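Hey team,

Sharing the Cytochrome c-type biogenesis protein CcmE run so nobody has to redo it. Sequence (136 residues) first:
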Amino acid sequence: MNKKIRRLNFLLLLLVTCSIAIWLIVKALEENIIYFYSPSDIVEIDKLSKLLRVGGLVKESSIVKKDNLIFEFIITDNVNETKVFYQGILPDLFREKQGVIAEGKFEKNIFIASKILAKHDENYMPKEVYESLRNK
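Structure output:
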């Protein structure tokens, strides 16, 4: 083999190796992505069996304590609403008419949250929530 053919073989092998490595990285990251949706977006998607983040404002007079550390509340974007069930301790800053993001899954068209994220000061609202509310 002359130098040109060896160099070409090396470059092809390098290209194939890099392509496979990039494909494996993208595939691994794809499984860990959690998408954010507003209540209006939820209406339009296939929402079953995916880990999702639903964000908006906690609707006034919607927080209900069902049992010991089981809460039910409604997240709204002032257009549509999503009912959320959560078992656990709510963040200290969680309250009505405040920005919140709930992370979890839909089970039989009910959103079961595994994590609740609330704003951390009076000037903060998650970027996705702010943009979603601004666009409505």
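The first helix runs from residue 3 to 32.

Ping me if you want the raw files.
A.
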